[in-house]
Amino acid sequence: MLDLESPVCVFEWRYGSEEMRRIFSLKSVVRRYIEVEKAIMRGLEKAGIAPRGCSEMLEKCAEDIAPRDIYEMEKVTGHDIASLTYILGEKCGECGRYVHLGATSYDVVDTAWALAFREALRVVKKKLRRLIEILTELTKEHADTLMVGRTHGQHALPITLGFKLANYIYEFSRSYERLCGVEKRVVKGKISGAVGTMAAWRDKGLIVEEEALRYLGLEPHTITTQIAPRDGFAELAAVLAILGSQLDRLAVEIRELSRPEIGELVEGGGKRVGSSTMPHKRNPVRCERLSGLAKLLRSMVSGAFENIVLWHERDLSNSSFERVLIPHMFLALDQMLEDMTWVVSNLQVFPQNMFRNLELSRGVILSEAVMVKLVEKGMARHQAHKLLMELSRRALDEGKSFFEVLRSSPEITRLLSEDELKGVLRYEKYLGSTKALINRALEYAAATLSRC
Question: Domain 364-424 belongs to what architecture?
């Protein structure tokens, strides 16, 4: 329930699913910190530094530790991990003397981030996979639905809605690949102590690291300073922002095509109010929210890149930014995936308006098809191009059909009969390898999703 007395944080109640919010709740953050401390204790046991059974003792004495206990103490200590280790040290009896021994706070923080990344990326990949699957079905359904292909905002050549959507499937599949790739680089543990040398564990550091990360199911970074390298965090931010921008591109496409004068695609509205004053409005509000959150994602990437540039073996200038950056990037993207999945699941398609818009130019968008035919008949391509540019503009200026203007041109009729012209000026006959390209995109997506 929203606390009306607390400062407003819209991500606490407006954006992101409960599944993603739970990952970044204070309760989950503290749970991961304690899991890492337990893992380190297991490593100390394995190395013969701490007595056997201390990790189980730590687990028991941590059961009643609440986030508020740690963050109340932090008001005094100014350090959240130190506060946790003080509390554990006091509560864990004889084993308390070994809590956090030889570790540094970012052994806990960075390894806990890795655990959070693993959980959050699992959610993102699951939702992206679902979106690709829905788009795949929509693509198959509309593989032959004719519409205008637009370049520079102008009518270009005929395409199909399936072809348009297949392009997005390809892009989203590439993001799925990027998510799998960055996961290998950021879901790694960092257990190496101050400045990263494992000095406090003498010659047993690799044993401590190996056992701790085996327990957590993580691979170690090959080498670190006192913190994990921030190039991985920056890469993660960039990958999430790229996916967000791809979602934004599809959202903008739907927004543009939903204009009443175009009316080809419309975001489903249900009982949603479009305007507080204009009852007739059906605003593409989810797509617009997608575009707004994409701006947030893109704006955060530069800060993630700044965090790569830390002093010597570490400084603290990354910490405050990451506490804001990481949860909010995942929550924003999670909301965007939820929204886009809803949009494509409820997308209204109007083939009759697509055909109406195809006809607006009265055949002019097939000028390239005519040019190719003229070249086949012996005319030089540059001459055909110049002639058809003149004839297409005449058709548009005079409000005549392209066929009508073409059959009145001696240069055209000398090479092409009326029947040949009619055959060339058929939208469905100038789709090239559309079907094969759609199938290739779908095969690529299926192969990508099966690999990771």
Answer: Orthogonal Bundle (1.10)
